[in-house]
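User: Round two. Same drill as before: sequence, then structure, for each protein.

Assistant: Same drill it is. First protein:
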Amino acid sequence: MTRHLPFSQPLIDEATIAAVGDVLRSGWITSGPKVAAFEAQLSAYFGGRPVRTFNSGTCTMEIALRIAGIGEGDEVITTPISWVATANVILEVGATPVFADIDPITRNLDLDKVAAAITPRTKAIIPVYLAGKPVDMDKLYALAKQHNLRVIEDAAQAIGSTWNGQPIGSFGDFVSFSFQANKNITTSEGGCLVLNNAEEAKLAEKYRLQGVTRGGVDGIDVDILGGKFNMTDIAAVIGLGQFAQLDKITAQRRKLARHYFTTLGADFEAKTGAQLPPAEFEQTNWHLFQIVLPDRITRPEFMTRMKEFNIGVGFHYAPIHLFTLYRERGFHEGMFPVAEHVGKQIVSLPMFAQMDEADVERVCAAMWEVLG
């Protein structure tokens, strides 16, 4: 049998493995000099903006909402097609999630639908860059400025993506990234938040470690309710090794994405009824290569058939508003038809930096067999 081809796999080199050993031997394994070094490198990449690292790319969004003062009585607009954390953090701060439907081509938030969903209670927008593809950033920030809204960018999948030549995170408002194991670069688990100024960065430090402020030799105070969200030096040293390879990883993913389109051919959509992603290779980091299946085959059927070829397939994501937690808050089928169709039929094909063109050709041949 041919080897198993997973849909995702982290790229960890021997130098990074050795660096983790050095940290373990150093005696300093929680937040320390490696966290500071990782934050400094990220800040330089994002144009000098303040960056703080955390133990997940979920708490980063919650903390951004808290820094923005968003809570009880406020509404935050986001997409139904994301990992459920994007909406859960809105509930965590006591605010109300409001969903807007997605664009059928980009599968990101439809910003016209966002505009229609704004009310006097709306305080923020959380756009998600599905598969690493940014929304129209100019339109997003014009809309936010028009209505005096904060923007918390869920850029969990978008490290290495750009807009008009600028890295996502180097401009805008709050920008949250994830370094979870299947992201383009990883710290095993973790994330970072790009902030606007030193005052916000100081608040982020408080929120990530119990609200504590230290001063002098033994001075300590707590003036806000924080949590336990700090990144360890073990995670940070993995991040340093990964970050050094970001450009190489992004270039390889774009190369693989191009080969998917070339190998599938210009008539793939017409002959199979499947929908490919937009063929864009300058701004997107190609975190995922996703297709929307034709209605004549269910996602479980497709995933089972691809498994017969020893090929792993994921899906990202089920519609958030149809989970029980959100149904109990009044959401139901039919509210966001584009998101519901995409969420039912979308699949993520193998895409990771260790793949080569032969792997892509193997996936494409299997898809033609299953869908052709």
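Second protein:
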Amino acid sequence: MSEEAAVPELRWGLTVPFAGVSLADHRPFFEQAEARGYDDLWSGEATGYDGFTPLVLAAAWTERLRLATGVVNPYTRGVPVLAQTAAALQDASRGRFVLGLGSSSDVIVERWNGVPFAKPLTRVREAVAALRPVLAGERGPGGFKLEQAPATPVPIHVAALRDRMLRLGGEVADGTMINFTPIGSLAHVVEQIRAGEAAGGREPGSTEVVCRFFCIPAEVDEGLPFARHLFAAYGTVPVYEAFFRGLGWGDRLDPMVDAWRAGDRKLAVEKAPEDLLREIFIFGPWAAQKARLDEFAAGGVTTFALTPICGPDQLAAAIDGLARG
């Protein structure tokens, strides 16, 4: 993306893979999403499948959808491996791939994979700086060079939580991916991205702002138990805890974090702050969910990465219900 390029109109995406559905059985859902007018598929990578394989399948089974990692990290994969995989997916998808890159978390990187989680801001900045020339066919770290560079440039997005990473996304990436963002804090988050754009000599609003949403097709009171369980697991991870504390939610977070660290998972779930959950999660019938998403779009989000919370038997209806328009 050039520095003067305009961000396209609001993009509508889904996160993949879909919970409870075998990868081999994703084809009809991918085809349905494309037919219903979705723009993107954003893959996740935590404790399920890796971030690339679902997109490889989608590259073969769809023709138009943009395919993006949301996200993979430069700790457990080095720059040459990331470049090779990005080049392969860009070729397989005929130019539809976006490399979403983030630092991940200390839990995933260090506790699970045994890789020191050191200087995440520097690690992401250096990875983006190294990947740009390599993906353009030039030599990179240690003299590595792709045998065949992508025929079309691979956009790079940066996942961010706290202010410095948000500014980095605006400065060096084609887009910034945010997650678990309270509606009341969205203005601050977008302001940091815009500050990064200014630091990089870019026009304000010239980069994409992607936000992942958990969409619960139930009224708030009915949907809160799921939201509490998910949030307790995420909000107690140090990088997310620091994020919410930086947004001023520290006092509301303390009872949940204290219970989690004491080993009382049940109490931690009970103590998940309801007012914060109401700001983050998308509840209600489809029309109500879209109205809430409109508020995020008005606040600066340009791309929705929607995660429908439902079983496989309700997935087709959810894809239809969440579709644009």
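The chain has two domains: 11-217+284-322, 220-279.

User: Perfect.
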